[in-house]
Amino acid sequence: MTGNEKAGPAAGCMLCPRKCGADRGSGKTGVCGQTNEVKVARAALHYWEEPCISGEEGSGTVFFSGCPLHCVFCQNKPVADGAAGVFVTVERLAEIFLELQEKGAGNINLVTPGHFIPQIAAALIRAKKTGLALPVLVNSGGYESVETLRRLEGLADLWLPDFKYMDPALGARYSHAPDYSEAAKAAIAEMVRQSGPPVFERGDGEGRMLRGTIVRHLVLPGHTKDSKDVIRYLYETYGDRIYISIMNQFTPMPALAGYPEINRRLTEEEYDEVTDYALSLGVECGFIQEGETAEESFIPSFDGEGV
Questions:
Q1: I need a surface site. Which of 179, 205, 271, 291 has the fewest CB within 10 A?
Q2: For position 82, what pLDDT does the model report?
Q3: Residue-wise DSSP of 154-221
Q4: What is the pLDDT of residues 45-63, one digit of tens each?
Q5: pLDDT at position 298, please?
Q6: 294: which residues sit within 8 A by CB, 6+ positions away?
Q7: pTM passes above 0.90
């Protein structure tokens, strides 16, 4: 295999639930905004994930350009829209994974990789044959195809999906995806099947996570009821087989001018309402954010570093 054009679907892309059918192999772009040529915006150590992912050494994070969701509140818009990034071959992507390992990364963290999974799988196989020994983490918006995720079986160890909404109306309004919740349910079930229960390096829930699934949920202003529905579903379905990360870092972006109902910061009372509800259910395996995280910078510069 000498390049990306041989690693992805030849025509009629059906990799994500959009099933847009774009002939990405011939240079056409899909709903994700990308052709078959892998585009990477940044590859560097990242310190702002959950503690068991970042650790002290940092997570070896590769940000892929493009996204099938295009959420109206996206904080990584230049990357999601595909404006930022550098084109790389499968061979170069494998080298990037190995370079992150050499820099001391605790894992390889693939951010929004779904539309490039065939190429990523080929790069991982190549890298593992030449010395990649780190856990591989798939960091996604949760809107994934089960069939596509199965291409990573035996290659991925950790899964970090979002579960953004339970209400189809919210999926339709904010991500143009009324089927979001159903797709996310199926995708997370597949991720948990592949990862199994959480495994930590010290075996006691401490240190870096080596295998397992952490589901993130960003609480949206004015939508605490939907947040509770998401958390209840996750806990009733998986119990302690997954970790639930409840996030408060919603940041109003310029694009939200047309969405006044969420064009504000989350209040402390709203976040406490959701986290208190999780505790009342019995959720113990989880993460919460403390302080004014929405005022901190979790967004790196997407300048092609490490690519």
A1: 291
A2: 83
A3: TT--EEEEB---SSHHHHHHHHS-TTHHHHHHHHHHHHHHHH-S-EETTSSS-S-EEEEEEEEEEPPT
A4: 999 999 999 999 999 999 9
A5: 59
A6: 248, 249, 250, 251, 265, 266
A7: yes
Q: 């997370």: which residue's tokens?
A: 188
Query: Which one-letter amino acid corresponds to residue 28?
Result: K
> Are the beta carbons of 145 and 138 closer than 8 angstroms?
no
Question: Left, alpha or beta for 212 (phi > 0: left; psi -120 to 50: alpha)?
Answer: left
Length of the chain: 307
Terminal Cα-to-Cα distance of the chain (whole angstroms): 20
What would the two tokens of residue 290 be?
A: 């403390």
pLDDT at 292: 59
Angle at 109 between CA 106 and CA 114, to 5 degrees: 160
Q: How far is CA 185 from the centre of its chain?
A: 15
Backbone angles phi, psi at 166, to 5 degrees: -100, -35
* Position 294 pLDDT exceeds 60: no
Structure tokens at 17: 């639930």
* The two three-digit tokens of residue 103, written as one number: 């820099």
The torsion angles phi and psi of 37, rounded to 5 degrees, stand at -80, 120
Tell whether the model's pLDDT for residue 87 goes beyond 50. Answer: yes
Structure tokens that stand for 287 in this block? 């993460």
